[in-house]
Write a structure and sequence with these properties.
31% strand
């Protein structure tokens, strides 16, 4: 049986059972200001950005006229800065998002785009103990009286110049921190002293992401797919008015026209990213992510597959390897 020898088991265990710190190299921050900032994003992206209130955040998708994914990013409205929207793009995507936004500003729009990536840094504290770790730094994120360490999804907190965005359903469950770049090493060190393991590589992160069935930029969240096909239907608000690609997405929902979906695959042998999936010799999809799961002792993958081959238990072939469709997240 193949095992990923590059996967650090301590890091992997921290993501499943404890907490881990992921430094977001290349992850920037854009800030939108002026009177039309919310309406500007509202007309281009899938989620109801205009409904955000101070202290809230949401994930939204910038879509093309054909409803394909252009970018996925977080929009946060800090309570301490209610006249600004903070945008958190995927690592490496800040410059592209900035260019796109600036290109969509018409002469009557009252919108200003500021790139604050040089002065601000980002990191993520992920894992079931993330809130406890952050409490040691002064962040009171846990719900009062909650049996588990839970915090409201999309809540935005500020403490001593650090912005914290709670995210349960996007990326690995955890808290995204935005902080002055000059304090990055100190904060990361304090988190590690509080018990969070540093993620030194990508293998543990990748394995946990696949187990949870979380789509990622560059894998599932690409221009090949619509948000509905890539598992981001929850980031597409209904009845919010027009936005680029909205008519196509609305038709897909109303008339059940989503013809392919994100699914999980499990196999006895490794699966290769990019491999075509077939049924009776016909292409029905492609593998977008693959990983070895130490907890499940199995080869897992994410794939976008045509209906009706998305039902749990369906067996697909990938380069001669049999892979069974499973519901996400993987639990057994």
């Amino acid at each position: 049986m193949h095992i990923d020898t590059q996967l650090d088991l301590d890091e992997y265990t921290a993501l499943r059972e404890g907490a881990a710190v992921l430094l977001r190299a290349g992850a920037g921050v854009l800030v939108l200001t002026d009177a039309d900032r919310a309406d500007f994003l509202q007309r281009m992206t899938t989620n109801n950005v205009a409904a955000l209130r101070p202290g809230q955040a949401c994930v939204t998708v910038l879509t093309s006229p054909t409803a394909r994914i252009v970018q996925v990013f977080t929009v946060a409205l800090p309570a301490g800065e209610p006249d600004a929207l903070w945008l958190l793009p995927a690592p490496g995507e800040t410059a592209a998002l900035e260019r796109h936004l600036r290109g969509q500003i018409f002469f009557m729009d009252k919108v200003r785009v500021a790139n604050r990536s040089a002065e601000l840094a980002r990191l993520r504290v992920a894992g079931p103990q993330a809130l406890r770790i952050l409490a040691a730094l002064g962040f009171d994120l846990m719900q009062a009286g909650a049996g588990l360490m839970q915090a409201d999804n999309g809540a935005v907190h500020e403490h001593e110049g650090v912005l914290a965005v709670v995210q349960h359903g996007y990326d690995l469950p955890g808290v995204e921190l935005v902080l002055p770049a000059a304090r990055l090493d100190a904060v990361a060190g304090a988190l590690q002293q509080a018990g969070a393991a540093p993620l030194t590589g990508s293998h543990a992160y990748h394995a946990r992401r696949v187990e949870l069935g979380r789509p990622a930029p560059g894998a599932e969240l690409t221009g090949e797919y619509t948000p509905l096909e890539a598992g981001l239907a929850w980031a597409c608000a209904e009845n919010k008015g027009c936005y680029t690609g909205q008519e196509i997405i609305a038709r897909q929902v109303t008339y059940d026209k989503v013809t392919r979906m994100l699914v999980g695959l499990r196999s006895a042998a490794p699966l290769a990213v990019g491999a075509q999936l077939t049924v009776d010799g016909r292409d029905v999809g492609a593998i977008t992510s693959a990983a070895w799961s130490p907890a499940l002792e199995a080869h897992l993958a994410l794939a976008v597959v045509k209906r009706p081959h998305t039902a749990a238990g369906t067996v697909l072939l990938a380069d001669g390897v049999a892979a069974a469709v499973q519901e996400l997240p993987f639990t057994h």
